[in-house]
Amino acid sequence: MRILRLAVTAAALLLSFEATAQTTLRIGLAEDPDILDPTMGRTYVGRIVFSAFCDKLFDIDEKLNIVPQLALSHETSADGKELTIKLRPGVKFHDGEPFDAEAAKFSIERHMNFQGSFRKPELATVDHVDVVDPLTIKLVLKTPFSPLVAQLTDRAGMMVSPKAAKEAGDKFGLKPVCAGPYKFVERVQQDRIVGEKFADYWNKDNVFIDRVVFLPIVDATVRLANLKSGGLDLIERVLATDIKEVRGDSRLKLSTALELGYFGLTINIAKDKNKGALSQSEKVRQALSLAIDREALTQVVFNGEFVPGNQWVSPEHPYYQKSFPVPKRDIAKAKALMKEAGVTLPVAVDMMVPKGAENEAVAQVLQSMAAEAGFDLKIRVIEFATSFKQAQAGEFQAFLIGWSGRIDPDGNSYVFMHTGAPQNDGGYSNAEADKALEDARLINDAAQRKAIYEKLAKTVLNDLPLIYLYHRRLLIAHTNKLEGYKQMPDGLVRVIGLKLK
């Protein structure tokens, strides 16, 4: 009996050791993501989660070069109307199904045709997909489309299991089945998303952590406290005001990069049920823009760490239009524009703001600045995922929201400004803007494209369907026990190559 007890004890100790030997990476997110379906998702935090679950045809490196992931290579025809992609052999989806040309064709066509797909405009120029051989596909285009390969470095390039997607239909996002380093285990809304290392992952030799757990914690102060106490291993969106605290803690490291995207006010132009002055007059929108001191805003809320901006790319980006510099605050001109517009003061504006300390601080600064020009910005704080639903329904007048950005400027502009585009929440429509957006997609030459985007800037910076405010510095903090972490400008948290001491 004594020997039996010792054997049981030894077995229990062994099991305990094996359990503790399992490594778990705990990532604190600033919001709870929307649907975990790469065809339907539209949130930044959703993209962070997808980076662990769903590999793409292509990825980017630190210098924004496009590099292979599930694809091995690509070739564009001389007329720009065919893109041939060679696929990586020996890849499996999480359900054991093989990834091949048929699966790639299915995934791309699902992105193109699925009801309510947010990838549809990203792939709008694709006419059809041909299977050339078991590991080669050809995307046949209606017209040349210069940003296409760049689009395939993001959700439009994420591959899903045809079997699982067909069986799940519109419920696929409840249990996504992709071909990434981690296999989906469970999701508890507002609490956690869990993945475990996929044993048959094509690049498994570079996956060193057994489990990944994403924990949405809206309060940035609480996220940081959890990191410092050891409850989390990495957090995204550290407050700029907390940079000094992170750098002063020997147990923590800070990783930064200037984002590819922007933060701004989306204006409801066509869907405003109340037909408020902001939606009806570009002069009123111009007045609001001129009432904002972007430099002061970034200094007050972000300790000057963020970059003031007025376009869909930052002033440091090669496609930034220097002929339209960030405007200085001009209250006198703002008041004159309000007078020209003939509006009754103050102009009340329903400003929808996703919950979060920094968002709310920005909203309060905007409210104070705009008041001097005759605006009454009524701040309406709302849960993040709910704000997207209300935005799509047009239930706002101004929406304080950011975009994490894409490596090609088309990804920061077309989907928000083109008539009928699915993330054009304010219903903006201008034929000149549409033409510029369409023309820029036909040209590969950078100088020619930049000249086209200058025309776009002239139009939209007059109409102001979106008032750009600043470009964030991506601030990721992690414990020094986490090795190998590098931050890239797209804001994603990549788990490949990471080790936990």
Structure report:
- It is a single chain.
- The chain has 501 residues and is of the alpha+beta class.
- Helices cover 32% and strands 23% of the residues.
- The strands form 5 sheets. It has a 7-stranded mixed β-sheet with strand order 8-9-10-1-11-19-12, sandwiched between helices.
- A hairpin with a 5-residue loop joins strand 4 and strand 5 (82-87).
- The two termini are 40 Å apart.
Which topology of the largest domain does CATH recognise? Dipeptide-binding Protein, domain 3
Low-confidence stretches: 1-20
Shape: globular
CATH superfamily of the largest domain: Dipeptide-binding Protein, Domain 3
Largest sheet: 7 strands, mixed
- SSE-based structural type: alpha+beta
What count of domains describes the coordinates?
Answer: 3
- Gap between N and C termini, in Å? 40 Å
State mean pLDDT (0 to 100 scale): 94
CATH class of the largest domain: Alpha Beta
Radius of gyration over C-alpha positions, nearest whole angstrom = 24 Å
Tally of DSSP helical segments: 16
Quaternary organization: single chain
Give me the count of strands. Answer: 21
**CATH-defined architecture of the largest domain:** Roll
Taken as a percent bin, the fraction of beta residues is 15-25%
Helix content range: 25-40%
